[in-house]
Amino acid sequence: MGMTGTRSIGRILYGLAFTVALPVTLVLWARSLDRQFDLPAYQSITGGAILTALGVLIWITGVVQIIRRGHGLPMNAFPPARFVSSGIYHVIAHPIYFGWVVACAGVSWTTGSASGLWIVTPVVALACAALVYGFERPDLRRRFGSEAASFRPWLSLPPDDERPPTFAERFSFMFVVLAPWLLAYTAVKELGAPPDAFDIRLDAEKNWPVLLWTVPIYVSAYLMVPLAAFLVPTRAALRRLGEQAVAATVVLSIIYLTVPVIAPFRPFDPAGPLGWLLALDQKYANPPVAAWPAFHVVWAAFVAGALSRRSRGWALVGWIWAAAVAVSCVTTGMHAVADIPAAMAFVLLLWHPVRAWRATLDAAERLANSWHAWRLGPIRIINHGIYPGLAALVGVGGMVALAGPDAWPGVMMLATFALVGAALWAQWADAATTVQRPFGYYGAVVGGCLGTIASGAFGQPTAIILAAAATMSPWIQALGRLRCLVQGCCHGAPVDSRFGIRVANEHSRVVSLSHLSGQSIHPTQVYSIAGNIAIGVLLLRLWNLQAPIWFISGAYLVLAGLARFVEEGHRGEPQTRQWLGMPIYQALSVASVFAGMALTSLGGPSAPPPSTLADVRLLSTALAAGVVYWFAMGVDFPDSSRRFARLSG
């Protein structure tokens, strides 16, 4: 068969995978999850059909325009020859993915599938984002250069310059910033108060009177937030407001989902127009979740800061208004006192998102250049060994605490097999030299699973141990990535200096292996740390809610696979093997997602309550694991030429 015939078959199979196999898989996944969870279900055949049709229409329009204007097919494996920036692509950068997500939500609404709406559709959205940021966006910039890099559709934040925003750019703010915030906020509300929620109000404030005359101040935020987009004087001010709001939406949504805090509304007499208005607000703000930190205060501060760009007079009025809104959160009984200082703390944290990120990268750069070692005869002790040692201590200790003290033998078998698997895997996958001692993540995953299975022969609770390992793995990875920064493994590809870090330490693999000394590279280890912290928080929350143990294990594989896919798309290690035009780890990330989907379908018993940390077996097991991992990843024999002797040059 010729090359043309092979490509044609490849395109057909690729198309069938995404138009037939994937939809069927998602439907089956949603059905299996519906049997496990009691999530809020909504069904409207008419509304769902309209939403599905809208999503399919957007999807088809994107496909047709790629074929007609891009002279190709909408397939990453067989990309079009031309960059498309007109038609629907002038409005939204990725209409095919956006339409697909909308259609998934529409089908879930039509069929009344709660899991389809609350689990499958968000995972599909995350998968589309991972595909864009981990593969498609870098690929487009490689193939089309400045044309792709400078492309800015209507639905995006404006450029960072001092020109006044156009009306279209101001109006776009409603869809790019406010719509995602409203969707996230509403979703948290619809999920309701968690079973372990606690009232954050002080006893004294529960009986404070409601001051109805402050209601107009409180509800003024609903008007001022969208109006601010039309009052900011420059594109830079509008962009910064958008960056602040998007960052706050992501961070606070995770907090709302994982911190079980409620602030019940204080009772009042709903007489008169102001009483009616407050009663209406309480109706739509019920249940009293998503209150700590108070997003009212966060929005008011961001808007005041944006208005301050106009003049000192606007700044004075804006900040007086923001302060009044903060006070009204308490005087109207809509928030607890504790909600206000928490919001102010996050305002300070997210005030300059870009600067905060740059400060994080500067700290990462200092750490990446901190390689240092001490010699004791033939032995070399490297400073980065402290990080895997700490990761093992925290991770193994957490696993035993979650699975129970009686599971410590199984946890130790898992930890031992994971270490051996990581070392053996890296010797193959990373094409490492025989005298170096690298470690590979997927080898640790495979080895850990094999160790847990082996522990079952000794009566260990394998399913619970795997779930505990999945719950603690993000924290192990987050701490372990600090070693990667110092060691230089898992490093990124070259990038614009505004977004990268520079490594010049001769012992780092960035310098010794990749020869990128002094060049700005993607901080892929930092990407991994941020993603793992978010995943770790969510999985701990699932455990505390006593979710099914196989669902927890599968959720880790799904979320870690998506995060890893993005990270791998920006890595720049020359020794990484390629498979089907992508780094082998991206292919394994995709496999991780589908394996996780299969595991979540198994359900299983609920996660048990965590045991106390003050247990001798727990502490001794964790300490032993920490010492072993510290030695394996921080102590070597630099003068030896034996296999696994050296960690670096």
Q: How would you summarize the topology of this molecule?
A:
Elements: H1 3-34, H2 45-70, H3 95-111, H4 114-144, H5 146-149, H6 167-191, E1 198-199, H7 215-228, H8 235-258, E2 261-262, H9 272-285, H10 295-307, H11 312-331, H12 339-349, H13 353-368, E3 373-376, E4 379-382, H14 386-403, H15 408-429, H16 441-456, H17 462-487, E5 501-502, H18 509-512, E6 520-521, H19 524-544, H20 549-568, E7 578-579, E8 582-583, H21 584-600, H22 616-634, E9 635-636
Parallel strand pairs: 1-2
Antiparallel strand pairs: 3-4, 4-9, 5-6, 7-8
What gap, in angstroms, lies between the N and C termini?
48 Å
Largest sheet: 3 strands, antiparallel
* Poorly predicted regions: none
Average pLDDT score = 92
Counting copies of identical and different chains, the oligomeric state is single chain
Order of neighbouring strands in the sheet with most strands: 3-4-9
Strand content: under 5%
**Class based on secondary structure composition and strand pairing:** mainly alpha
Q: Note the overall shape.
A: globular
Could you tell me the number of beta strands? 9
Helix content: 55-70%
Number of helices: 22
Radius of gyration: 26 Å
Protein described:
A hairpin with a 2-residue loop joins strand 7 and strand 8 (582-583). It contains 22 helices and nine strands. The model has no long low-confidence stretch (mean pLDDT 92). It has a three-stranded antiparallel beta sheet. Strands 1-2 form a two-stranded parallel sheet. Helix 10 (295-307) packs across helix 12 (339-349). It starts with a helix and ends in a 13-residue tail after the last strand. The chain is globular. The protein has 649 residues and is mostly helical.
